[in-house]
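Hi V.,

You were right to ask for the full record rather than a summary. Here it is.
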Amino acid sequence: MSFKESKPGSIVIGFIFICAILFSFARYMGWLAQNPGVLGTVARTVYGPDIRLETARLKHVKEISPGIPAVTVLCYHEVRPDRDDDCMNVKPEVFRRHIREFKEAGYTFLDVSDLRKSAAGTSLPEKSLLITFDDGYADNYNYAYPILREEQIPATFFVVSSTVGNNNRMTADQLREMQANGMQIGSHSVNHENLAVMSSKEIDFELRVSREALEKILGKPVYALAYPAGKVNEDVLDGAKKYYEIAFLAGVWPDQKQTMYTLQRYGVFKWNEHIESIFRNR
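Predicted structure:
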């Protein structure tokens, strides 16, 4: 074969080689992690979910917050097939995709009882994930809960106690059923109002009465709290420490030190088609 005859084939092979190098470099730089198109799909298929950004954050958590469980915590609100315009709503098929991608990435799924044990000295797996839900919407039971059971995954639901049984909210019977099947229930206050602008007496009411009401429904201690909208100050922290063992914020700030009463969570929104994008919700 002459040089002229082999040249077109060599050019094609060289082009493919260069494309492969550029693709690998783009993945290494993390540029494909946010790509919802073909390149992102190919990268995810070849390499698996890209969790390097979160791995680096958790390493930093260990450095600045020693003794605090270095876990990834997600905060969902609604999981339903409609409400396309609601930024807080994640479609059921996307929620299931998140779970399967975290499984593929090698995560162990926790609930708040595991964090409680961790605080007492029990070690947690290196890649640990806690799924939480805020507000107690009825779709949590209708759509998210069946997926969690099918995927054999625990989760923790933070419920506004005064809304239990209201329109578009979970009922007491549903909460008891979920608890009986491995889900954990926590407090999201009595009325879901900004605790940080309340008096100490009002804060005490919101945190104490919510816990008491949920414990009456569930017949078990309620020891975890999610602050409404993540709003907190020193008075709120004092109240949380009085009635709970663990409390969660509603955001992630990588350079902010955490305690068991300021545990950070990623909000999950409708645009988070894949788990890589969740890690940029800060």
